[in-house]
């Protein structure tokens, strides 16, 4: 019999800390539902004390998720704990995840607290969290650089206070697999009451070792891994959920544990997260990259044709690459459309909401012969953005022209607030450049365009192009996305989406530092 490895997904919290990856409440709910279909054990929905928006997002996720445990992050502060408890009040199963830094450099230079005071804060936080839920997790932030004796002391204390999961984070991605794994083993051996808690790990990918460090910890007794879809996260990201899960499933001969993950949902969840956040998946990414199961070498192709196992250690089907899908088109009716959306986990609260998305679907179907799941997800993302109160700028019309030997030019009409404004024709290096310059001439953000990326949502020459742009101004970074069968229009939509986020001026407290 193997142990169960608990999969704790923090895409909605730590993943959202990626510069520009901020999600709306509706987007968080969509991803949470996908994670539930994936059968994730714990969904960390956010940091309720960070902002009113984050509080409401955690609250919304807590109300709709029925199968997974919903978790809220909280610093070891009374207000943070109380906000998390209030946000999770309606959850079927809830967890509060509280943390405080334990490395000498963090205690001295960031917290300005003595080790005794840090232990006191940690114990009090766990005790207060137990007033809201029996499921309390504690993390010693920057554990990888903390003194082992102090870790043993504080972890023993929080277990006695009621913590039932102990998460050991490699906050700065500095750990090496074997030493990190041995640390987990020693903590389990040295702490007298360690048998009363599950040991967990949360590894960052600064040196490209997040998955390796996490799996090393599993080998030494950790039975929860904190990870994200596509490895999303601040800086270089986190351990990728899909890689952790498939490593454990594929190497049953090596790992004495198993997960409850429905692996056939992995690719769909990956594409949803990529689409909402605007962070494309690299083609050679393990498990979910477009080339993950592609073979070009003649020797490899020959081997796979004779026997798949010669070069494939797992099948594309078991992670969701070749799942059967209903392809919709312009002749598809409302019932078929509603049925497919239900299968994707989308429920419409009103008939008007259904009508709006169905109308968008019909418009797209007039341009594109076949509509795939990725197209439907893109429609939902676009509709959610337009319905958001943050959409101050809207695209009304775009005209552009280009010919060999002539300067490309574009003219745009925008609705800014309640008024329409039209820009004079702008010229550029190409029609995309001209279009974005025309938009900027009206919105005048003064932001720098630091990223422009184009990818196709599906195959075929009639595929929608998906454009991601990144704007930076005064240290603030936002991502914008747009999709259309015309790449120039998709680019304009993406730029305007980013502009709206920039103009929203959302203030967010950083969960790791408590600073704005």
**What percentage of amino acids are in beta strands?**
15-25%
Structural class: alpha/beta
Q: How are strands sequenced across the largest beta sheet? A: 2-3-4-5-6-7-8-9
From the alpha carbons, calculate the radius of gyration and give it in angstroms. Answer: 24 Å
- What is the 3D shape? globular
Please give the number of β-strands: 17
Q: Provide the helix percentage.
A: 25-40%
Which regions are unreliable across 5 or more consecutive residues at pLDDT < 50?
295-302, 506-516
Q: Which fold name fills CATH's third level, the topology of the largest domain? A: TIM Barrel
Q: In DSSP terms, counting alpha (H) and pi (I) runs of 4 or more, how many helices?
A: 16
The mean pLDDT is 89
Largest sheet: 8 strands, parallel, barrel
Whole-number total of structural domains: 2
First CA to last CA: what distance? 48 Å
Oligomer: single chain
